[in-house]
Amino acid sequence: MKKVAVIPARLASTRLAKKLLLEIDGKSIVQHTFEKASKAKLLDEVWIATDSQELVDHCKSFTNNVALTSDQHQSGSDRVAEMAEKNPDWSLLINVQGDEPFVSPADIDKVVEPFLHDPMLEMASLFHYFDKNQEDINNPSNVKVVTDLNNRAMYFSRSPIPYPRMDTAYRYKKHLGIYAYKRETLLRYCSYARTDLEQKESLEQLRALANGINILMVEAQHNSIGIDTQEDYELALSMAKS
Question: Average pLDDT for residues 70-79, to the nearest whole number?
Fold first, then answer.
C-alpha cells in the first residue's frame, strides 16, 4: 500500500490574501506544512497540489514534489482526487490542509494507522476534544462532529451538536481537517454531486456521509490550527515565538 499525503494549496484565498506565502520564522506557511507532513513515519511521499504557477515556483525552492492542477476544483478533496487519477499506484491518500503549519506528524500517522489493520476501512479523519470554552464551541469556524459507539462520524456541523437541552456534562468534539481515503473511495466520493446538506453547512465531508461512506474518527494528540484570517496569522506568529 503506497501512502501519499497531498497538500491541496489554493493561492486565491478570500479572507487572507495569498496566505500560503505568508512567512513564519522565515518560511512560508505552505513550506512549514510540507516539512511537518514529511516527518510522518507512515507516509511514503508528500506532494503539494496547487492551481497557481506562482505557488509552484515558490514550492520548487524547497521540494520537487509539487504539481500544477486545475483551477476549477470546488474543494481540496477534488484537487487530491486529480492527483489520485494521475497516480494509479497511490493506494491511500491523505489530505493535509495547506494552511496548517503546526500540523502534527504523529497525528498524520494516527489517521493512517487504522488502514494498516482494517482492509474494509474507506475513510478516516481526526478530532480533538474542546475545552470548556463555550465561545470556541459556538464559533461556526470550529466544526463539530458527533460519533457513534464505534467512533464513526454521524454528523458534522458548524453549530454545537448535540444541542445542550439538558444541563449534563458533554465533551464536544472539534473536527480537524485531515482526511485519509482509499484511492477508489476518494474517486467515487468526488464523482457524487454536492448535496443540500453539504452546501447548507459548507462542509464537504457531509457528501460522504450522505452517500453511505463511513468516516472513522480518530482522536488527535494535538489541536492544530488553520490560518484563515489576519487574527489567525498573528496567533501563529505568537505561537512560533513561544
Answer: 90
